[in-house]
From TrEMBL:
<dbReference type="InterPro" id="IPR011598">
    <property type="entry name" value="bHLH_dom"/>
</dbReference>
<dbReference type="GO" id="GO:0040008">
    <property type="term" value="P:regulation of growth"/>
</dbReference>
<dbReference type="Pfam" id="PF23174">
    <property type="entry name" value="bHLH_ILI"/>
</dbReference>
<keyword id="KW-0805">Transcription regulation</keyword>
<dbReference type="InterPro" id="IPR044293">
    <property type="entry name" value="PRE"/>
</dbReference>
<keyword id="KW-0175">Coiled coil</keyword>
<feature type="domain" description="BHLH">
    <location>
        <begin position="2"/>
        <end position="57"/>
    </location>
</feature>
<keyword id="KW-0804">Transcription</keyword>
<dbReference type="InterPro" id="IPR036638">
    <property type="entry name" value="HLH_DNA-bd_sf"/>
</dbReference>
<dbReference type="GO" id="GO:0006355">
    <property type="term" value="P:regulation of DNA-templated transcription"/>
</dbReference>
<dbReference type="GO" id="GO:0005634">
    <property type="term" value="C:nucleus"/>
</dbReference>
<keyword id="KW-0539">Nucleus</keyword>
<dbReference type="GO" id="GO:0046983">
    <property type="term" value="F:protein dimerization activity"/>
</dbReference>
<keyword id="KW-0341">Growth regulation</keyword>
<protein>
    <submittedName>
        <fullName>Basic helix-loop-helix transcription factor</fullName>
    </submittedName>
</protein>
<feature type="coiled-coil region">
    <location>
        <begin position="54"/>
        <end position="81"/>
    </location>
</feature>
C-alpha cells in the first residue's frame, strides 16, 4: 500500500473523498473552471491554482480596505458616518 493511501486511511479520508473535494475546488476557482473545459486537470494543478486564487483574493481585500480607508479619511463627518453605517 502506498504511503499516500495509508496516510489518507489514517486520517479517515478516502481517496474518493479527496478526489471529490478536488473536483469541488476545480468548480470554485475561475482559472481552473475555465481551463478544465478542454480536459482533465491534475489535482496538483487544482491545488496550486486554488492557492494562487486565495492569495489574489487576500490582495484584493487588502487593496479594497486601503481604498475604503482613504475614502473615509477624505469624506466629511456626515459622509463618513453614512459609509460606516452601511458597513455595519
Amino acid at each position: 500500500m502506498s504511503s499516500r493511501r495509508s496516510r489518507s486511511r489514517q486520517s479517515g479520508i478516502t481517496d474518493d473523498q479527496i478526489s471529490d473535494l478536488v473536483s469541488k475546488l476545480q468548480q470554485l476557482v475561475p482559472e481552473i473552471r475555465n481551463s478544465s473545459r478542454s480536459g482533465k486537470v491534475s489535482a496538483s494543478k487544482v491545488l496550486h491554482e486554488t492557492c494562487n486564487y486565495i492569495r489574489n483574493l487576500h490582495q484584493e481585500v487588502d487593496d479594497l480596505s486601503e481604498r475604503l480607508s482613504e475614502l473615509l479619511e477624505s469624506a466629511d463627518g456626515a459622509q463618513a458616518a453614512i459609509i460606516r453605517s452601511l458597513l455595519m
